[in-house]
Design brief:
By secondary structure, this protein is mainly α. Helices cover 53% and strands 0% of the residues. It has a domain of 37 residues.
Length: 88
Amino acid sequence: MNVTQVLTVVALIEGFFPPRARTPLPTPCAGPHRPATDGQRAPAGRPPQRIYPGRVLDYFFTGLLAALALLIAWFAGYLAYKLYESQR
């Protein structure tokens, strides 16, 4: 299959799927999850609060995932070691 045939197939496949409408991204604003910055004001009646951003949870769960991956790899190696040890 040459490049022209591949591009023809890709164009045919793309023709079955209409392009998605792009929705504009919301503009950042001050609030309980995003402290006020220059030119922004906190909502009336509430001072701007600083709480942990969502990235902290991302880092925590990524670290947890890595730790569990290491634990699973260690346990698999341990089991293989014990299985081969018992065959001697």
